[in-house]
Amino acid sequence: MDKVCAYLGPAGTYSEEAAQKYAGGTYLLKPYPSFDSVFAAVADQETARGLVPVENYLEGSVNLTLDLLLKFAAAVKIHGELLCIIRHFLLARPGQKAAQIKEIFSHPQALAQCRSYLDRYFPEAARIGMSSTAEAAALVAQSPGKAMIASQQAAELYGLEVLRAEIQDEALNITRFLVLAREDAPPSGRDKTSLLIGLPDQPGSLHRALGVFAAAGLNLTKIESRPIRGEPGKYIFFLDIEGHREEEKMAKALQKTGDGALFLKVLGSYPRAAAPL
């Protein structure tokens, strides 16, 4: 497992691009077929690190990642984060003309991040969500009238041509990725703590929980609710708070909040990402 980093494959995905930026030659990159398998690789110590997207600043959170953070909370911690600028390219088989495109394939998140562009320039083309870059590339390479949204690297890997470059609706299309490990990171002086909390189903419980962090002067940067499977109408909350769990005021706030909660799990403390890569 030493010096191996798992990511959502196959080759040519945006997760691979992010992993390359994170690894910087330090880790051997290994693709896995699903988010669940990336988490499992870290939990089972097949790899030292894993990398998964958790949030796009245009389209919001990746709910599957949030659900898996809960599922693997006992074995996997957040060790770091990075912000990546995602650039989308419209790819097709060599010689294909833009005017001939009838179907556009990609991951649903990528299609959503290019919605306005596609509405304007390809309003009649069907948009088809795919989970696999490789599967989409195979369809596009073999058939006329098809295109896909992917990275520029995917064009080189799968022998496709770039029809249109950087078609994302916003120039700063940023996705936040989490670095997974068996342990979180030591204090750096500029940290973030992620946690999930279950609260009693009674008036004011969320207000009281958040008030603890406000009273301690801790800045809450994100809150997200997710339904509890098998318990309709009940939710857990994911929080990001500036500071490290080992710092005194954070440790006291976590203990006080936990005393009034059904459960509280610290998912990890880790350095906050600086500028997008």
Lay out the secondary structure:
Blueprint: E1 4-8, H1 14-23, E2 28-32, H2 35-43, E3 49-56, E4 60-61, H3 63-71, E5 77-85, E6 89-92, E7 103-106, H4 108-113, H5 115-121, E8 126-129, H6 133-142, E9 146-150, H7 152-158, E10 161-164, E11 174-181, E12 191-198, H8 205-215, E13 220-227, E14 235-242, H9 248-259, E15 263-271
Parallel strand pairs: 1-2, 1-3, 7-8, 7-9
Antiparallel strand pairs: 3-4, 3-11, 5-11, 6-9, 6-10, 12-14, 12-15, 13-14
Mean pLDDT score? 89
Q: Count of helical segments?
A: 9
Question: What is the CATH C level class of the largest domain, in words?
Answer: Alpha Beta
Q: What spatial form do the alpha-carbon principal axes imply? A: elongated
Helicity, as a percent range? 25-40%
Name the CATH superfamily classification of the largest domain: Periplasmic binding protein-like II
Can you walk me through this structure?
With 277 residues, the protein is α/β, with parallel strands linked by helices. The chain has 3 domains: 4-86 and 173-181, Periplasmic binding protein-like II (D-Maltodextrin-Binding Protein, domain 2); 89-164, D-Maltodextrin-Binding Protein, domain 2 (3-Layer(aba) Sandwich); 191-271, Alpha-Beta Plaits, CATH 3.30.70. The chain is 29% helix and 33% strand. The strands form 3 sheets. Strands 1, 2, 3, 4, 5 and 11 form a 6-stranded mixed β-sheet that branches. Helix 8 runs antiparallel to helix 9. The longest helix has 12 residues, at 248-259. The protein is elongated, with a radius of gyration of 21 Å. It starts with a strand and ends in a 6-residue tail after the last strand.
